[in-house]
Amino acid sequence: MQLIRYRAGDGAPQVGVLDGDQVRALPGVGTMAELLGRPATWIRGACETVLAGWGTGAGGSSLRRISVLAPVDGGTEVWAAGVTYERSMHARVQESLESADIYDRVYTAARPELFFKSAAWRVAGPGDRVNARADSQVDVPEPELAAVLNADGDVIGYTICNDMSSRSIEGENPLYLPQAKIYLGSCAAGPGIRPAWELDDPYGLTIEMTIRRGGETAWTGQASTAGLRRTVTELAAFLFREDEFPAGVVLSTGTSLVPDLPFTLAAGDEIRISISEIGELVNHVVRGKAALRG
Ligand code: DO4
Ligand code: MG
User: Does the C-beta of 83 come closer than 6 Å to ligand 1?
Assistant: First the structure.
């Protein structure tokens, strides 16, 4: 089962439960932000009530008749952790000549690297475009397992996040990290949220990414969340230490797949990220915000 945001025809976005290829709206829940403001027991109960009524045949739609949207809206923020896998640490050391040791240090430090990634309104959903910024030379997608937490800081479920990044801008100076990471079209998420109560082990998932260019595979790789150096609980505890998220928060846990230099994304690339038990997120690359809007 997945919690999704979706639109049927020209209707307003809705929040619903997807089971197989059937979706049903969650009664009385207008937005995902509103849902994530509720206690975990309430959210689970609402999903289970909808599932229990599945057999009655009332009110469902086929997946084919809806558009699935990014699973965030309203005041929900997306945050991300960095350098949580050895591969990410090595890749950053390689790209940043003069500041390489900061990545080594944060990889082993008690305090994780956490950064604001996106407001909900600019998170790309399934099938949407993502942006490799026009003033960057080396750009990569970062396929990441993302935890979705409610206002109380409880993990409600998991989704996929693509933390699009400029390696050349971050590599020039780590203080440029916000420009390397936070810009229009730099974050995609979805397709849905797999409830935490249905997932046995978030540290035993396979992450796969394939980048297709002109009908050919330009890059492909696979990794396991078993390599995550920190637990989701630990990352969430740091995030909530001195902050609050009344509309919940998506916390992306960092990347374990980074294409070797000099690989860079190109306009027209298709990025396909799948995480076992969670789903598949596909996006298309444009270069520059004018192309994103066009
Ligand atoms: O320190 C830079 C960010 C690292 C990151 O986004 C990741 O490891 O996924
Ligand atoms: Mg990342």
Answer: yes
Which residue CA neighbors atom 6 of ligand 1 most closely? 82
Q: Return d(Cα 196, Cα 135) in angstroms, integer.
A: 39
Bridge partners, 78 (sequence order):
118, 250
**pTM (2 decimals)?**
0.97
For residue 21, what are its two tokens? 């290829």
- Residues 230-245 pLDDT 10s: 999 999 999 999 999 9
Residue 227 one-letter amino acid: G
Residue 226 confidence class, pLDDT cut points 50, 70, 90: very high
For CA atoms 232, 86, 199, 115, the dihedral sign is: positive
Residues 81-90: what's their mean pLDDT?
A: 95
Asked if residue 91 has its Cβ within 6 Å of ligand 1, the reply is no
**Ligand 1 nearest atom to the CA of residue 88, by list position:** 8
